[in-house]
Specification:
Distance between the termini: 27 Å
Number of domains: 2
Strand content: 15-25%
Strand order of the largest sheet: 1-6-7-5
Shape: elongated
Radius of gyration: 20 Å
Protein name: Formamidopyrimidine-DNA glycosylase
CATH topology of the largest domain: N-terminal domain of MutM-like DNA repair proteins
GO molecular function, one term: lyase activity
Keywords: DNA damage, DNA repair, DNA-binding, Glycosidase, Hydrolase, Lyase, Metal-binding, Multifunctional enzyme, Zinc, Zinc-finger
Family: Belongs to the FPG family.
Cofactor: Zn(2+)
Largest sheet: 4 strands, antiparallel
Length: about 290
């Protein structure tokens, strides 16, 4: 799933590439992914793109036209991506026969497709007058890379929560933009078990967690900056220390990276760095997790 750094990379790319261009055509290929009807998707046609912003994991393309200022807002979900081309193909899209959910054609001949792999379709896009009209954006917590987000902000968000810290980091209503992959990386850097209860963290724990969050996300955003969409996924994989590296050697201590599997995903961690050498129970084999 694209998370804050990759989404920011896409936003930076789009801001530099499409600002000032006009949307000549918006072709819906998966009607189920379109979550709004007012304004209609046709409101984008003839609109000039004025900028691109990120809200958590949402991408927001702002436009202006004689009839209004519609925003195209999209969330790539678990298996979605943005596929850019400098010269858009004239081939017609056949709805239901393609991984493409939406095609945007631009005035210089370029454009992009929103695509989604697999059979479980969660990618969503909306045309709205204000990004806050998208429920997922309206529910977002603060952004960890906002200059106003301090160590005290983090402490206030987790105080009293009898929830595992891994879940807190992934909850978009608490923190915007962090998902499964970067929560693994943050907790590894902080030397903290993913099962630690948020309410039990000490001041030293919160200091480490805040420092790890800031450094991990800042580095990942810097790594994504300037890369075209086609290169962002590989850049993400290369930068991971534990996530997606089950069975490999921890680059910090040399122990073996382990996984815990859930219904539709997994988490990765280093026992030596994070759990005092304890191997965490696999949910597929045991419900007695500590």
């Amino acid at each position: 799933m694209p998370e804050m750094p990759e989404v920011q990379g896409l936003v930076d790319f789009l801001r530099g590439r499409v600002t000032g261009l006009t949307i000549t055509r918006a072709t819906v290929a998966n009607i189920a992914a379109l979550k709004t009807y007012d304004p209609p998707i046709t409101a984008l046609e003839g609109a000039e793109i004025t900028g691109a912003e990120r809200h958590g994991k949402f991408i927001d393309l702002a436009t202006t036209s004689p009839t209004g200022t519609p925003h195209l807002v999209f969330h790539l979900a678990k298996a979605g991506w943005l596929r850019w081309t400098d010269q858009l193909s004239p081939t017609l899209i056949r709805p239901g026969k393609t991984p493409i959910a939406l095609r945007i054609a631009l005035s210089d001949g370029s454009g992009f497709d929103l695509t989604e792999a697999g059979t479980k379709k969660s990618l969503a896009y909306s045309v709205v007058r204000d990004p806050q009209d998208v429920p997922g954006i309206a529910r977002l917590g603060p952004d960890p890379l906002d200059p106003a987000f301090t160590r005290e902000t983090l402490a206030g968000l987790i105080a009293g929560r009898r929830t595992q810290i891994k879940g807190v980091l992934r909850d978009q209503s608490i923190l915007a933009g962090v998902g499964n992959a970067y929560s693994d990386e943050i907790l590894h850097d902080a030397k903290m078990s993913p099962y630690a209860l948020a309410a039990t963290l000490t001041d030293d724990d919160i200091d480490r967690l805040y420092a790890a969050m800031t450094s991990t996300l800042t580095s990942a955003v810097a790594e994504a900056s300037g890369k075209p969409p086609a290169d962002l996924k590989d850049a993400k994989r290369r930068g991971m220390q534990v996530h997606g590296r089950r069975g490999e050697t921890c680059p910090v201590c040399g122990d073996t990276v382990r996984s815990v599997f859930f219904a539709d995903n997994s988490l990765e961690y280093c026992p030596t760095c994070q759990t005092g050498g304890k191997i965490l129970a696999d949910r597929r084999l045991s419900r007695l997790l500590k």
